[in-house]
Amino acid sequence: MAITVWGRLTSSNVQKVIWTLGELELPYEHVVVGGFAKGTNTPDYRAMNPNGLVPTIRDGELVLWESNAIVRYLSAEYGSGLLFPVEARERAVVDQWADWTATTFQPSWSAVFAAKVRTPAAEQKPDDIGKAIANAERQFEILDGRLADVPFLAGDKLTYADLIAGIGLYRWTTMDISRRSFANVTAWHRRLRERPAYVKAVEVPYDELVGRLTF
Ligand SMILES: N[C@@H](CCC(=O)N[C@@H](CS)C(=O)NCC(=O)O)C(=O)O
Fold it and tell me: What is the band of 24 on the pLDDT scale with cuts at 50, 70, 90?
């Protein structure tokens, strides 16, 4: 039975999942819910995902939400030795960058996206935007330092840490803001853009999110 994914393609958390499926060349069914499509507040959907958020997946008997958990699961189940190192010390490094992304990096660029893109122009606060950009740049500096040493976050090969972190690059580089440039991050972005699964899943226009804080 094919994997089913619920979620809208303009959600960066859904994009991680679609990108992972693409890297692993796994067939899947896609049900568009969330945002304008709604559908996340029904009893059936809430029974799968009590948060009423996207993404959610089903793979056989397994129903799973939380995008990073989904990416890790797919990588372990279908990408062992590929996206998911089997050796504990190697995997620990992948988890370090994945968890840093969840707790620190993604919240930092998401805060800029919320303040500058999702907040209606008349309500935007330049000071808040400036502080959010400065904080995000501190995290990009850390990323840049790592990528000075290795082509991908965990070393020589693409892993699920790159999938979890890499979804931020399109939004970061296309927002109408002044930002510092980071040469190693730019080179990593270029490497990711060579991957059709990345481009298809992540380089997705987000016009429907402009000025809209409600979803
Ligand atoms: N921590 C959750 C966050 C999920 C989340 O906030 N999803 C947003 C889209 S990125 C959502 O469902 N928004 C409401 C909607 O799209 O209707 C995850 O990573 O899966």
Answer: very high
